[in-house]
Design a protein that fits this description.
Blueprint lengths: L4 E9 L3 H19 L2 E7 L4 H7 L7 H5 L4 E6 L8 H6 L2 H7 L4 E7 L17 E7 L9 E4 L7 E4 L5 H16 L5 E6 L7 H13 L6 E6 H10 L6 E4 L1 H14 L7 E5 L7 E5 L16 H13 L3 H15 L15 H12 L1
Parallel strand pairs: 1-2, 1-3, 3-12, 5-10, 8-9, 8-10
Antiparallel strand pairs: 4-5, 4-11, 6-7, 11-12
The chain binds adenosine-5'-triphosphate and magnesium ion.
The site of magnesium ion has 4 residues, from loops.
GO molecular function, one term: tartrate decarboxylase activity
Catalytic activity: tartrate + NAD(+) = 2-hydroxy-3-oxosuccinate + NADH + H(+); (2R,3R)-tartrate + H(+) = (R)-glycerate + CO2; (2R,3R)-tartrate + NAD(+) = 2-hydroxy-3-oxosuccinate + NADH + H(+); (2R,3S)-tartrate + NAD(+) = 2-hydroxy-3-oxosuccinate + NADH + H(+)
Organism: Oceanicola granulosus (strain ATCC BAA-861 / DSM 15982 / KCTC 12143 / HTCC2516)
Length: about 350
């Protein structure tokens, strides 16, 4: 059931996370006023390198208890590689949430926004507007495997790909439902069944099987090599693109890259069953090179807030936020420096909140 009272765990993390998250909250508060919602934001200092510095851990032992009752997690960015190696900070926080909360969907909207120059020639807003759906829990990123004859010239290294029926069907179901909810009703599956001869034909088989339940969705498949080329050459062909963990990973970085700056793209790590809280964050990281200067673009964080609202059943409010973002990005004088505008993080956040009210 959709509730108008939302309990949100807020984790700003490191670097520019601490600057853009407050702007995300500002816009969510503005959305609450306009759309009659109420937020209970609970801020947490863990999952940050500061916290690691104080405790030697990225998360407290009782982190699950502390996050209990949260409808979702609104996340900034984690990582401060000068102090804590990225694999320690990442595996100790974000990847733990992903696994423990079974956030098996990584969802990334890929949309060219007004005022953002695309690196692709002759592309305008409206030409690029699709979703990448990445399987987030299995596939090529299993830690099953091993080494033999280590250190000799007969050395062998093996790592398995895990494609389970359960894991495949649930990500496909999410992707088909998303496609069905969109006007184009078009799903593209990323595969490589001409080269990877066991797991990928199975993936294709499951796509065909699942398609039987969604007669109104047009389905096609591309091998990952040509698919990446088509993202660049014909991004207007796509509506919802689904891929395994590795293929989805590649596509979910390539997609936002085709839409210009990294500063505006959002991402959701979602458990569609609602059993666990889902986590919404910008695509960008903690950006140590610009942290503390007040110049980071807050749009990716704010858009992540819109995704969070949509996930929690408040589509109208989510659309309102995205519209406010578009209004602000359309005006050069309201953009941040990375987009050639004069504003800092806070003023850009305020402009979007104003556009919403
Ligand atoms: P990750 O740790 O997530 O892999 P990263 O640390 O490699 O990411 P980012 O932190 O995303 O990379 O930064 C990459 C580049 O983009 C940096 O030069 C950074 O300044 C810039 N950048 C990132 N986010 C923003 C933003 N919100 N506004 C402006 N510039 C940004
Ligand atoms: Mg980083």
């Amino acid at each position: 059931m959709t509730s108008n009272k939302l309990n949100i765990a807020v984790i700003a993390g490191d670097g520019i996370g601490k600057e853009v998250v407050p702007e995300g909250l500002r816009v969510l508060e503005a959305a609450a006023k306009r759309y009659d919602l109420s937020f209970d934001f609970k801020e947490h200092d863990f999952a940050s390198c500061d916290y690691y510095g104080r405790t030697g851990e990225m998360l407290p032992e009782d982190w699950k208890t502390r996050l209990e009752g949260s409808d979702a997690i609104f996340f900034g960015a984690v990582g401060w590689p000068d102090v804590v190696p990225d694999h320690v900070s990442l595996w100790g926080s974000l990847l733990k949430f992903r696994r423990e909360y079974d956030q098996y969907v990584n969802l990334r909207p890929v949309r060219l926004m007004p005022g953002v120059p695309s690196p692709l020639a002759n592309r305008a807003p409206g030409d690029i507007d699709f979703y990448v759906v990445r399987e987030n829990t299995e596939g090529e990123y299993s830690s099953i495997g091993g080494k033999m004859y280590e250190g000799t010239d007969r050395e062998i290294v093996v790592q398995e790909t895990v494609i389970s029926r359960h894991g495949t069907d649930r990500i496909l179901k999410f992707a088909f439902e998303l496609a069905q909810s969109r006007p184009a009703k078009h799903l593209t599956s990323a595969t490589k069944s001409n080269g990877i001869s066991i797991t990928m034909p199975y993936w294709d088989e499951r796509v065909e099987e699942m398609a039987k339940n969604y007669g109104d969705v047009k389905v096609d498949k591309y091998h990952i090599d040509i698919l990446t080329a088509q993202f660049v050459l014909n991004p207007d062909w796509f509506d919802v693109v689904v891929g395994s963990n590795l293929f989805g990973d590649i596509l979910s970085d390539l997609g936002p890259a085709c839409t210009g700056t990294i500063g505006v793209a959002p991402s959701g790590n979602i458990d569609p069953t609602g059993r666990f809280p889902s986590l919404f964050e910008p695509v960008h990281g903690s950006a140590p090179d610009i942290a503390g200067k007040g110049i980071a673009n807050p749009v990716g964080q704010i858009w992540a807030g819109a995704m969070m609202l949509e996930h929690l059943g408040h589509k109208e409010a989510a659309d309102g936020i995205v519209q406010a973002i578009e209004t602000v990005l359309s005006e050069q004088k309201l953009r941040t420096g990375d987009l050639g505008g004069p504003l800092g993080t806070v003023d850009c956040g305020k402009a979007i909140a104003d556009a919403l009210s």
